Amino acid sequence: MNIIQTVIDLINSSEVNAVNAFFKLTLSFLLGAIIGLERRRKGQFAGMRTFAIISMGATLAMLVSIYIPQEYMGLKNGDPGRIAAQVISGIGFLGAGAIIQMKGSVRGLTTAAGIWIAACIGLAVGAGMYLIAIMACALIIFILVNMESYEHKIFRGGESKIIRVKVDGVMTDISHIRKIYDDYLIHIQDEFIKYEYKQEITILNFVIVTRGKSPDYIKMFSDMEKAEPSIRSITLTNEVNY
Prior knowledge:
The protein has helices at 2-11, 18-41, 48-71, 81-98, 109-126, 130-154, 175-183, 217-227, and strands at residues 100-102, 105-107, 160-168, 186-196, 201-210, 231-237. With 242 residues, it is an alpha+beta fold. Helix 3 packs antiparallel against helix 4 (81-98).
């Protein structure tokens, strides 16, 4: 019983020791891996290993940040938050790497935010805020797992999509195509037009938002082809082709 109490006291100690360092690194590993597991389930490249390493790295930075002024009392400016503060700014490079800009389409924002919060959770564990770190991890998992379905229910049919139309020749009038969008209750947010004069091809990119439920795109594309016989192809995508 005395041994168990001693271990608990060492874990809860404000000073860095081998026992609480091992416990903190293990806990941050588990919390980071849980977040990474959910991201991997969504098909993201940053998975369990990435998030576990980020969380553990932040915890280790916090431990070092506490240990230096604790061990070297001669340091007049020993600030336990100095090294840890650099983690918050430095983790932005990893977050930026998770965001892929693809010609008007952004991917990886949620994963980048997850990387940032995983680092913050690691810092919290390193500072001994175990319960708060566990609560934060639980809330993050709830957001990643449940909030997506809620968003789809609330904004059903309101997501932005891009319809790319490739037409033979240099097209100067697209009012008849706009009319088809109006017939299907589709709002055009923006338009991007590209002329290939040498190849005599026009590429039209329509950034659209649907009103209500999603329209029958197959039927709409058929109507567009009837209205403009020179259409070579129609693509429904999330990426603008400039």
